[in-house]
Specification:
homodimer; Aspartate Aminotransferase, domain 2; 7-stranded mixed sheet; 14 helices
Chain lengths: 420, 420
């Protein structure tokens, strides 16, 4: 017995870090985390967060949908459900995807707790430590965080105002493979990109699909904003053109409401079983209640009209932001002109460090997200993301004006002669 | 260009399996999966699933709670929320845990998508491939599946009618460490165990906590059933006695309803930050709606009375099962006598293979879960789990009678002379 005790004493780790898995070293607070605590104070105009604007969402209607659901079908809605997701909702999800040209079988859809969970599951299935994930430059901060937790190396691929540059993708594939590394997939947001706001052209969609198919690389198409085009419908989803090599991620967070946490993945049949098993291991099953509430809403309510109404609301805000950028930002600054979605990506002169500038912006009562958050490699220090989705147009103008002043002051302090 | 194409051709993996992460090899269908498809047919008495019985849940009240929530606070309930979980619900969770002697700070609580997500996150933080997790013999199938996906080796520790055997735990720690392997935590369900139904004694709780503290091993205390004791309150939670070395998992799935998917983890402060970051990477944030619906329910409704009502309902079913086991099972069979929860664990003579017996049981219109599902090492082939939570007492009697007949026939076929 004393022998046992002695072995305990020598065997016991003295240090908490020693007890963690190696991947835990990648679980560090992001730049955005500490920022959001500050940016959420009411006196700050937050152009930082990507929260959908629910100000014209028909609450009495949703209250009624939920109440009826519980009274008519509570025993199912409040019970455990299928790991893959409710069959009825999976059918309706196929109808939603048909709006972007996708023909899909409900058997190939997995319902998830927001599309973030789909990102997590895809990473779990594909990424061994040291594997490479290709992503646009810049890319969605939440996806980068997940890829890093699975110990992937993210290699960014050049983009321009038409989206990912196909030739840059070719070169990236060659150089990564020449270095003897495995590429697991290309992650991209073709529609109204987060953070850049850019729409990938139809021609490039086809070209990128061909490159990836020839190279044996899955495309992970993340499409939260595809139905939020302001002036014309978005091009067909990439998945509409290639059902074998595209893993498609969708969500109701921007077209209905994020607080229900319902997203989905549509995958090639060869991936479906592993994805369902991975999801069951992760959450057992998605919420039957949330799924059936969305199912009732889609079946009974004019949801396409509500999306049009959201688009009108966001378009007014996009216009307010672009007009005030013209008015208040230095002429040397450049920014994207989004045709939908939530975001504008601003590029300043390279001597401006947007992370270092944040405290001054907060003093001026405005917040944004510094560009480095959207790169895995430290790039982006003279860029920033502005969100127009949530504040009123007046607040957007106030915020952009204040930020323009902060930037001009900083440029002047640095002796730049490029201020207009 | 042709060079690039050639390199693509040689670099492209030809085989889907080659593209997967190594952990994907552990994503295989469980025995329970295929079983549930059959067991859910209406003509089968399912003693297999662990679905809570919602037959006396007050649906009109819950419909009212949800409707009021959307009308009064829809803009928050339908929006993204905190990654850690809503502060108000985290306070109420501390009040719920106080019923089992736990004093906790809401800052140390993470709200999860069911406690399965907490199991997943704990595994993610702690388990490197090849690490050891200690667990009771038998243990919860859903936890075993998650540990395997993170490529842990599960080592089972002997249990008896008083729960985990402390001396067996001591010996397991010594032998695993003598083999040079790292133990990451001890996973256990002290109250009305799944699958065994056993309650861990108070004395053993203290002894096991001491062993694990001395050995530098966290205890993961999974407690879905602690408030479902039939005759007297359960002993205090293990976390009540040790706030530094216990990771506590709770859920509303059995005390309110599983369809909302709200569970939680209460962790030592040193683990909190990593757990929140891991959860954000996994699902961004738990559902604000589900959290606030439960928060309103806890604040406004007689939830303790509802739990008493659930206990009454389960006790009647437990009695029906134990009585019919006495009446219809062969005398040589042994089973546990649960004082709460959902499950009875039956041990048959070793020559009976409960997996091989399942098709005969299905023909006799009864389903159960074979014992091997609850072991990581193939043990348990002459055991099985029976759930009494869901069917009516009459159906339970019919099912146990049918299963008893199947077992007696099988024993007789094998020439056993132990049938009574």
């Amino acid at each position: 017995m004393s022998d046992i005790v002695n072995r305990f004493a020598t065997g016991a780790p003295q240090n908490l870090e020693e007890r963690f898995a190696s991947r835990a070293a990648h679980m560090k607070p992001s730049e955005i985390r500490s920022l959001f605590a500050v940016a959420s104070r009411p006196e700050i105009v937050s152009l930082a967060g990507g929260m959908p604007n629910l100000s014209d969402f028909p609450m009495p209607m949703m209250a009624d949908v939920m109440s009826k659901l519980i009274l008519s079908n509570g025993a199912e809605a409040l019970q455990y459900g299928s790991g893959q997701g409710h069959p009825k909702l999976r059918e309706q999800i196929c109808e939603v995807m048909a709006l972007e040209g996708i023909r899909a079988n409900p058997d190939d859809v997995l319902v998830t707790t927001g599309s973030q969970q789909a990102l997590d599951l895809i990473s779990r299935i594909f990424i061994d430590p040291g594997d490479v994930v290709l992503a646009e430059a810049p890319s969605y901060v939440g996806a980068l965080g997940t890829f890093h937790q699975y110990e992937a190396s993210v290699i960014h691929v050049e983009t321009d105002d038409s989206g990912l540059v196909p030739q840059a993708l070719r070169e990236a594939i060659v150089s990564v493979r020449a270095a003897g590394r495995k590429i697991k997939f290309l992650y991209m947001i073709p529609n109204y990109h987060n953070p850049s706001g850019v729409l990938l052209t139809t021609e490039r969609r086809t070209e990128i699909l061909t490159i990836c198919r020839d190279a044996g690389i899955f495309v992970v198409e993340d499409n939260p904003y595809g139905l939020l085009g302001f002036d014309k419908p978005s091009p067909n989803a990439m998945r509409a053109e290639d059902s074998e090599n595209v893993i498609y991620l969708g969500t109701f967070s921007k077209t209905i409401a994020p607080g229900l946490r319902v997203g989905w993945a549509l995958v090639p049949p060869s991936l479906k079983e592993k994805l369902v098993i991975a999801s069951e291991s992760s959450i057992l099953c998605p919420s039957n209640f949330a799924q059936l509430a969305i199912s009732s809403y889609l079946a009974e309510q004019p949801w396409r009209d509500q999306i049009s109404s959201f688009c009108d609301l966001y378009k007014v805000r996009r216009d307010a932001m672009l007009e005030s950028l013209d008015e208040y930002f230095p002429a040397v600054a450049k920014w994207t002109k989004p045709g939908g979605g939530f975001y504008v990506w601003v590029t300043l002169p390279p001597e401006i460090d947007t992370t270092a500038l944040m405290p001054k912006a907060i003093v001026a009562k405005v917040a944004y997200v510094p560009g480095t958050a959207f790169y895995s490699d430290g790039f982006g220090s003279w860029s920033l993301r502005l969100s127009y989705c949530y504040p009123t147009p007046e607040r957007i103008r106030d915020g952009v004006k204040a930020l323009g002043g902060v930037i001009k002051t900083e440029m002047s302090r640095r002796g730049s002669n490029q201020i207009s």
